[in-house]
Design brief:
The complex is a heterodimer of chains A (48) and B (301). By secondary structure, chain A is mainly α. Chain A is built from one helix and no strands. Classes of the chains: A mainly alpha (48), B mainly alpha (301).
């Protein structure tokens, strides 16, 4: 298998913009996971 | 990674959030989620709505993870095929390692959450589904045999079983019936697509049935599988999982699906194959919607 060549050369601000967007998405994901575990624990403890 | 020039890596902006979503194959995921959800609803028993939502979420994430790993492994052949050339990996918008890492983390997370929040039978079935899709279909069968989507199709047929097991903690005959519907539906669905994409599959070296055995044999087998689909679609009614209205409507839909296969068999062109591919998606959606409506409506008879 060949490895795909990365040809997408973007200016530094684009790099930072994408990094920020990824970080925000990751933060939202982690917060959602915390909320999920919290709700699931409540349901399991209440015998659901 | 040595094949990627250092200058390209230095200027690599990183994959966009949208690329991460794209490698989860959202369109495939939607069908998997829907069949899994129906399995969950028609299963005998009760599951707390929150846990049911978690189960569906885990099925979705598990399906997405296997899609991401599939895109990682198939990036070389994806680059050759027009339909897949603009995916994030062949288009160079994402590093292979990012896709693999993302897929593996999601797979482990989905199985763990399913086990901890719902039950471990459903979690094991989810793990089996992901492993089957990645190792059996993607890595082993896809590039080796024209029966790739027949055997590999089992992975796509497992989600209703996962949904069922999330409620009951085991796998009953009703779940097997749902599995059989998706299993026998998969070959005519994929072969309809591969009939008008045969050139691309041949260029990529993927031995799809039209490439290896020709269009005539493919059309014959498509018709056979649509006939085998009949008993599978009627099984929920025979098992008492659905009422007579389901049987009537499912019979009508199966008649139309068989009619589409006959048109493909008779047609020398591509048009009927394109129509059958589109109808196959609608067919599966409607069959599972009928099961859902029948269950919610309490048998409708």
């Amino acid at each position: 298998m060949t490895v795909g060549t990365v040809v997408d050369a973007k200016p530094p601000n684009e790099r930072e913009r994408r990094m920020r967007a990824r970080n925000r998405a990751l933060l939202l994901l982690l917060l959602a996971l915390v909320a999920l575990f919290y709700v699931v624990t409540l349901v399991r403890v209440s015998g659901g | 990674m040595s094949e990627i020039p250092a200058t390209a890596v230095a200027s690599y902006p990183g994959a966009a959030v949208g690329d991460y979503i794209q490698i989860l194959k959202p369109r495939v995921m939607s069908l998997v989620v829907f069949t899994g959800f129906v399995g969950l609803v028609v299963a005998p028993g009760h599951l707390h709505p929150v846990l049911a939502a978690v189960a569906v979420l885990c099925i979705a994430v598990g399906a997405g993870s296997s899609g991401a790993i599939n895109m990682w492994y198939d990036r070389d052949i994806d680059a050759v095929m027009r339909r897949t050339a603009m995916r994030p990996l062949p288009a160079g918008r994402m590093m292979p390692g990012e896709a693999l890492g993302f897929g593996v983390v999601l797979a482990v997370g989905a199985v763990a959450v399913m086990g901890l929040a719902v039950n471990w039978v459903a979690a094991q079935l989810l793990a089996l589904t992901i492993a089957f899709y990645v190792f059996v279909y993607t890595i082993w069968l896809k590039r080796r045999t024209p029966q790739n989507i027949v055997i590999g199709g089992a992975a796509g047929a497992l989600p209703p079983l996962i949904g069922w097991a999330a409620v009951t903690g085991d796998v009953g005959w009703g779940a097997v019936a749902l599995f059989a519907i998706v299993f026998f539906w998969t070959p005519p669905h994929f072969w309809a697509l591969s009939l008008y994409r045969a050139g691309e599959y041949a260029a990529a070296g993927v031995p799809m049935l039209p490439v290896v055995a020709g269009a005539r044999e493919t059309k014959r087998q498509m018709l056979l599988y649509t006939l085998m689909l009949w008993p599978a679609t009627l099984m929920p009614w025979l098992l008492g999982l659905a009422g007579p209205w389901y049987a009537v409507c499912a019979g009508g839909l199966s008649l139309m699906f068989t009619g589409a296969a006959i048109r493909v068999w008779r047609d020398a062109g591509e048009k009927s194959a394109r129509q059958m591919f589109a109808f196959s998606l609608l067919y599966l959606f409607l069959i599972f919607t009928l099961l859902l409506v029948d269950r919610i409506g309490g048998g409708l008879a």
